[in-house]
Design a protein that fits this description.
Strand content: 25-35%
Radius of gyration: 22 Å
InterPro entries: ATPase_AAA_core, P-loop_NTPase, RecF-like
CATH superfamily of the largest domain: P-loop containing nucleotide triphosphate hydrolases
Distance between the termini: 24 Å
Order of helices and strands: EEEHHHEEEEEEHHEEHHEEEHEHEHEE
CATH architecture of the largest domain: 3-Layer(aba) Sandwich
Protein name: ATPase
Number of strands: 18
Shape: globular
Pfam families: AAA_21
CATH topology of the largest domain: Rossmann fold
GO molecular function: ATP binding; ATP hydrolysis activity
Number of domains: 2
Strand order of the largest sheet: 2-1-4-5-6-7-8-9
Organism: Phyllobacterium phragmitis
Largest sheet: 8 strands, antiparallel
């Protein structure tokens, strides 16, 4: 399913944002404008599908930190509202998912900093009229089963649980399960650790790895899969050579573990191991693994991927993003105008500008 639009309100600096999404969604702005809040709000939709939304918000400091801190309408309780719209590319059916989270009441079975899910709705529209697949108010949830009957889900939700995740895992509601699987497949890459013990510098267990994990821990196995299972590293080789001064990857056939090294033109007989490479080199290689892997997720989101990269690497990074966009949707937030321009040149997408006005994030197309 393809994401067609996304809206968020009441979340941090996002008082009210609506965005239409294409194959590439590109946002550029200065530090502090709220770009990361856009990225994070979309990530919370995936957390809803995974059943981890309450924990994610709690780790941000709880609802007191996550809620919009500006003025609220009188007598209207503050809420975080996330809404996404999708289109099934095979059937053209349109799906809509909406969730509202708020503070726990003063006396409740929950904890004071965790969010409570107040409402959830999932509907689909085949062009005739919208059909409710799921509706929730508080702990009670109604949904349509595999035969189209609207029934009350037999298990009442805890306020901290998302119905989307719970119903998808029950096996009773196939459409909900399909959407949930799509959301769980999204990948969010917010930088990669590059310290000596970082996952991307370590050997990987030698199993076929068609897609990069979000922490990059299977990077060596992703490269080995491209080289020895798919047998095609043309795009990878070209981008590495372009970004790293003519360097090439050395990807030996794995034993119990998979590894890789880098050969540079100055020392053609020497293979530099990951622990010897610079932070910028390792981050670029991890981005290459994310964007050029054997199989891509439905959506890849990148938050400031230019971090630690030399400006000379940005055209190659833009090329990898454009290549990935041929196979999946890509969402990029960056403060680098040079990267945004390079992506725009290679994809034809005009970057949207992210601004901060009176504490509120604004997106100008």
């Amino acid at each position: 399913m393809r994401l067609t639009s996304f809206s968020a309100s009441g979340y941090r600096s996002l008082r009210s944002i609506y965005l239409e999404t294409g194959q590439v969604s590109l946002f550029v702005g200065e530090n502090g404008a709220g770009k990361s809040n856009l990225y994070r709000a979309l990530q919370l939709v995936k957390a809803s599908a995974e059943g981890t939304l309450a924990g994610e918000i709690a780790r941000e400091g709880g609802m007191q930190s996550a809620l919009w801190t500006g003025m609220h309408k009188a007598r209207q309780p503050p809420r975080i509202i996330l809404e996404t719209h999708f289109e099934d590319e095979e059937t053209a059916a349109r799906f809509s998912y909406r969730i509202e989270a708020g503070r726990p009441p003063p006396v409740s079975a929950g904890f004071m900093f965790e969010p409570h899910m107040k409402e959830e709705e999932l509907s689909f529209d085949t062009g005739r009229r919208p059909v409710d697949l799921m509706s929730r108010k508080g702990p009670a949830v109604f949904a349509r089963d595999g035969e189209g009957r609207r029934i009350e889900h037999p298990v009442r939700m805890l306020e901290s649980e998302t119905a989307l995740s719970s119903l998808a895992n029950s096996g009773r509601y196939p459409e909900i399960g399909d959407l949930c699987a799509t959301l769980k497949g999204w990948r969010f890459y917010h930088g990669f650790r590059t310290d000596r013990d970082s996952p991307i510098r370590q050997p990987s267990i030698a199993v076929t790895s068609p897609m990069l994990d979000e922490d990059g821990g299977n990077l060596a196995a992703v490269f080995a899969t491209l080289a020895h299972i798919r047998g095609d590293t043309v795009d990878l080789d070209r981008c590495v050579a372009e970004a790293l001064g003519g360097a090439r990857l050395d990807i030996p056939y794995p034993g119990r573990t998979a590894g890789f090294g880098l050969v540079v033109p100055e020392f053609p007989e020497r293979v530099f191991q990951p622990e010897e490479l610079s932070d910028g080199q390792m981050r670029f290689l991890a981005l290459a693994g994310a964007l050029l892997s054997y199989r891509l997720p439905p959506l890849i989101a990148l938050n400031e991927p230019e971090a630690s990269l030399h400006p000379s690497m940005l055209p190659a990074l833009a090329g990898m993003i454009a290549k990935a966009a041929e196979r999946c949707q890509v969402w990029v937030v960056t403060h680098s105008a040079a990267l945004a321009d390079a992506i725009g040149e290679q994809t034809g997408v005009r970057p949207a500008t992210v601004l901060r006005r009176n504490g509120e994030t604004i997106v100008k197309e």
